[in-house]
Design goal:
- The protein is an alpha+beta fold and 261 residues long.
- Helices cover 26% and strands 29% of the residues.
- The protein is built from six helices and eleven strands.
- It has a seven-stranded mixed sheet with strand order 1-2-3-4-5-7-6, sandwiched between helices.
Length: 261
Amino acid sequence: MHEASEPRYHSSTLRTHADLHAAGVLYARVFGYDSPDLQLNTNLLSALVRNGGSAVGVHTADGSLVGFAYGFAGRDEQGAEFHYSQAAVVDPAHQGTGVGRMLKQAQREVALGWGHGHMRWTFDPSLTRNAHFNFSTLGAEGIGYVADYYARPGTDRVVVDWALERSADPYAGARSVTPPALGEQDWGRPLPAPDAGCGAIWLAAPARACAADDEQPDADAVVRSALHRLLADGRVLVASRLVDETTAVHLAVHRHDGESA
């Protein structure tokens, strides 16, 4: 088990039907899934726990489940093996308290226990808060961009890779570089980041997903296209920070020698 900044939380693998059912309820409620094809099957979750996968949760001291993540063993077309985290969800009332990090650390222990040295997952590139957590908090990297990841429009995703046994972070210096004061006029426009290394790029993005009635309704699409190009050119995303209430910036650098694709 792990301790977060608040000791009222504890994490563990979910094994009972009651816990797995509560996980499914939490997952559907937070993501707003009411369609049966998007809901979770407790038998599947139980089978994952027994066969190379994960189903971990964070409970409060009174036993309430407030965080849940699940995943399974994966392998890409190049033969790289990893633990794939399909989803992680935190009750809105407990976000920002360390629960998300506890979930990933609990999954990390499960993955290492199954012999996996890497974990992968995806995130919606319009969710800059998720990008900050993945890169600047956990120290993972964005390694690829996949259009229509879930075989339907509007489901573009950035693929994240987290090295679980790395003794030193080769991107630590780049992650610590202070971003420039970019704004809305810079959204989607790649700009050099010389302090972060040769060929490093800053990319400004909306701090929140753009709605159809925003002043720049195509800003999200422009940023997605730029991210796609940067990652296709062999760079990885290593940091994401909020500049102000409207703008966040991503940092893309060339992949370090020896790091997996």
